[in-house]
Amino acid sequence: MALIKGRTMPTSFMARPGQVQQRWYLIDATDQVVGRLAVQIANILRGKHRPEYTPHVDTGEFVIVINAEKVRFTGKKLQTKTYEWYTGYPGGLKSVSAREWLEKHPDRILREAVKRMVPRNRLGRKQMTKLKIYAGPQHPHQAQQPVELKLPH
Question: I want to staple 113 with a disulfide (CB 3.0 to 4.6 A). Which of 38, 80, 95, 104 is the partner?
Answer without folding.
Answer: 38
